[in-house]
Amino acid sequence: MTRHRSVLPESRSGFFTLIGLLLAIVIIGILLAIYVLPGGTGGAGGTGGVGDAKTVIGGSRNRAQDAVCRNNLAQLRAAISIQAGTGSGYPPSLEGLTAGVDPSCPTGEEPYRYDASTGTVSCLHSGHESY
After folding, report:
1. Does a structural domain hold residue 67?
2. Which stretches of 1-131 are assigned E, i.e. beta strand?
3. Does residue 6 sit within a domain?
4. What total of structural domains would you count in the chain?
5. SS3 101
6. pTM of the predicted protein model
7. What is the pLDDT of residues 76-106, one digit of tens each?
8. Phi-psi category of 49—alpha, beta or left, where left has phi over 0 and alpha has psi -120 to 50?
9. Which letter, b or e, does each residue of 77-107 get, where b requires 16 or more Cβ atoms within 10 Å of its Cβ?
10. Domain assignment of residue 83, yes or no
11. How far apart, in whole angstroms, are the C-alpha atoms of residue 35 and residue 13?
12. Is residue 26 one of the residues assigned to a domain?
């Protein structure tokens, strides 16, 4: 009785290697497209600017930076409220607070507006006035 060697494992092995290679090329292509598209972090085809709303990526960055700005303002307001509640009044400036947040908008880098007489803090960046 003669045993025949199956060709199937060898061809399947080559097939899976080819699929793995194609999958790696597709993933690299997607990552390069994200990097090069306008709104990416740089590259030849993009503006290199953060927050270019022409792409999905830029829109996501804008929404994330908006959320960070809202969160910063909420933390600063809470810290102002806590300090005012201790009886020492409103802080003279935002720099004296221990809220642990940067007192400037992450989108436009403008410092937040603070009124020490009323204890209100707001963002000067266009579109963030209602935060």
Report:
1. yes
2. 113-115, 120-122
3. no
4. 1
5. coil
6. 0.55
7. 888 888 888 887 788 888 777 766 777 888 8
8. beta
9. eebbeebeeeeeebbeebeebebebebbbbb
10. yes
11. 33
12. no
